[in-house]
Amino acid sequence: MHSPNDSEFLQRLKQEAVETDREDLLAILTLRFGGVPENIQGIVESLTNAEKLERLVLVAANVPTLNKFVEELHEGSEAFRLVGEGFNPLAEQ
Length: 93
Prior knowledge:
Blueprint: H1 4-33, H2 38-46, H3 50-62, H4 66-73
Helix pairs in contact: 1-3
């Protein structure tokens, strides 16, 4: 049987994972594109959906431009596939 402390601990772990994913996402965007506009940073910092954050980390690592990332930022968090030139990090800009 789980105690209330177990539930609190698991919730805290999930929250910490989301915070780490947000930090990782901003770091990837900064490394890839030389910075993150304040409005995009604000959106990223407000994200709480772990699945969407995980998806966006993969997107940020694979899109050739920040504009393509912004397009994906406004997409849902359902199942996805990163295919096509829009997800080729070496594509010409």
